[in-house]
Give the backbone structure.
Amino acid sequence: MKWEVVIGLEVHTQLTTQSKIFSTASTAFGAAPNTQTAVVDIALPGALPVMNKAAVDKAIQFGLAIGAKINQKSVFARKNYFYPDLPKGYQISQFELPVVEGGAITINVDGVEKVINLTRAHLEEDAGKSVHEDFHGMSGIDLNRAGTPLLEIVSEPEMRSWQEAVAYAKALYSLVTWIGICDGNMQEGSFRCDVNVSVRPEGQKEFGTRREIKNLNSFKFMEQAIKYEVNWQIGEIEEGRKIQQATILFDPDTGETRMMRSKEDAHDYRYFPDPDLPPLVIADEWIDRVKATLPELPVAMQARFQSQYGIPAYDATTLTSSKEMAAFFEAVVAAGADAKLASNWIMGDVSATLNREEKTIAESPVSAEALALLIKRVMDNTINNKTAKDVLKKMWESGDSADTIIERDGLKQETDTGAIEAIVDAVLAANPKAIEEYRSGKEKALNALVGQVMKGSGGKANPGMALELLKKKVS
Amino acid sequence: MKTVKQLSAALASGQVSAVELAQDYLARIGQLNPTLNAFITVDADKTLAEARAADAARAAGNAGLLTGVPVAHKDIFCAEGWKTTCASKMLDNFVAPYDATVIANAKAAGLVTLGRANMDEFAMGSSNENSFYGAVKNPWDLNAVPGGSSGGSAAAVAAGLAPFATGTDTGGSIRQPASFCGITGIKPTYGVVSRYGMIAYASSLDQGGAFAHTAEDCALLLNVMAGFDDKDSTSLEHAKEDYTRDLNQPLAGVKVGLPREYFAEGLADDVAAAIEAAVTELKKLGATVVDVSLPNTKLAIPSYYVIAPAEASSNLSRFDGVRYGHRAADYDGLADMYEKTRAEGFGWEVKRRILTGTYVLSHGYYDAYYLQAQKIRRIIANDFVAAFNDCDVILGPVAPTTAWNLGEKSDDPVAMYLADIYTLGVNLAGLPALSIPVGFGKSVDGKAGRPVGLQIIGNYLGEAKMLNVAHQFQQATDWHTKAPQL
């Protein structure tokens, strides 16, 4: 039987506010345990939550970025359950009326575009952390994270493969970091994914029973977890067993998923509107104010790059994979480089080197202006493309400018026809067969000889000029 | 017995110092508290330090109207450095590390803390018998309950252990003990007094307020307590008022509404007689009486006893033994620690309401109970809005009877809940209301009758009008000057 996979995601993004969602304590990561806690975060008797408007700003930004509806009135609700890292015994979240409803994100898998619809995005507070280190058989509680603002982004179950799920997660990640509402630090838990997975026979309308993989904080783990889970579910069904709804965890060490709790153990969260917080009312002026601060979004920028710079769609998409890369590209072009050449260099040698060194473009030792100068030296035939690659390497290591390196290492192209002619003559003399082929109509036969000319010139010959000379001599 | 107004004048003239005043009250507390049990915590050193600071402020020319006046605080307001127990074993070891806004405001006004007043555990109760620290006695009759939940505050003022006191009112917890103890007590409009640092029972109903002998003194304390607070999201953004401003307005032309449902079956004859006499007195002062209706009065009880426990079940989840307060000594794992801690730390009434609240919020019951109760709540509020189209204030009894005997209803929680019938609607609607003494009921067990309170309900933010009616009544009568023999 052919099986179809159905996946929906719930992503918890930590919002980049200075203070917590309902208290004035700092959200900075890594402080000594329980030092970033106001009375609200410890849930002292009598403590009351006060909404941090900056968190709402960020939720609105997200809603605008995905073309969603911003609810004029949304309601905070209490999700009640006992756990030591949940100091109040309830989490303040949104249940019936979330701040953001609807919206969509476009993903691209192997060149095929697909629109994934979002159900909702709602504001809530993060819990603290249990610390299971050596406390003489006891557990420690660190409440620094308690009350950190989260935007939980819920998709429709519209993904049909792990590739689509990962592409969606990456697109979402790229968007929230692009608009700056999340720092994207997955290691520190800033972007955590719960993945709902089910399978059904191809053609069947009803969904299968889903299991929810909790708390994946890397795209690699997401891929592994979904692959494992899909195989497991298909195996179970094919062996005649039923899938039971459950919450499961992925263990990266074993590469397997395991049960956390079954549906029978599921909590009754006893949601009800939080009487400590009036409904969140967002007037049009608030939305307008946030709209004015929203940066140009990737989709708009891709269209502009194509029309303004005449680069292909693929290039525009790649260059807008991060805001920093897009800005770098525009700076290179602004400094006088040809747009397509700039795109080639950034997507090619620059990205490859950054990846190798695990750096972001913001950390590139070669500035946009320096790269533009290098490209200009190719454009004005001072050096050829191959030499330019070596020059970039030297720029990367030394921090010197392209001109300094070309001058110092004598890399200027040989444009003296006389000097090249001698080399061309020698190459032709050594390759009578190529000449014959060319004369019999095989145009490309001479191209192979260009390389030999280049070699003879120590790389300094202009390849275009070499080909011209070769043709002139044999015709 | 001296009013706050008199004490304020005596302090201003130098007739008495804040330290002397504090010592006088501490002495009386030392003498009578063992009998009345109105205070959970008294700390003379702390009190005298505050009094010395008040005297120093006065000497430096920085005294306000109430600088140096002593006050008793209900043990529900967190006060830095004071044991803040909410009358629960759960918080028997809890010393608050911060000040509630009410406490901070009282400090800023120079008030001197006499101690922490007893109450029903977590403000749940109408008799003050649900305290981990034992029941409070009614100063008028030591066999009677003082009312609750702010029974310690009311008893302290009635017995002259404090000139005025703070309290909280979720379903009548200021008005009913004020009525039972023969003093004046005001619960302002929801949102007027900050709830920050006030330990929550039912957040959408809880409201801080004041006890004193007179309406005028209540206005003075309310002036200190009230005001917008950005630390409480339900605090009203409302300009600071002087609640004494209308005290001396004549009552001519004031329309007082008598809801017929408040005078129907269930109201004891002796209470009805005292209320009717008070209404007659107000008419003499120029007020016009109109008949109004609050047709859904009876529904206030089921609505309240769903909503309040629902919120309480969630509000009290934080008492889990993890970070502060009581933790069971022996337990086996996390679930066992929670169970034992909460089983040991909470009293029966608190457990009853947590269970009720958990039930009504549960999957499958939420719509039938919680949502239904919220609908009734809106209907009840609308009834009041309609009634206020025809009158300026609404008058009625605070409770169907005078104070009952200690232990009389302890085994019958429903009977106790039914006694809240005239006070709950005000909280559900978020309205202000006060209670003033208007006489005594019939003799009980061969002893003198117990106090009767008249409830005056105001429109939203109508505190000044309510206080005006109460003050004018007190100018013409002397019920508020009566003191129990102790």
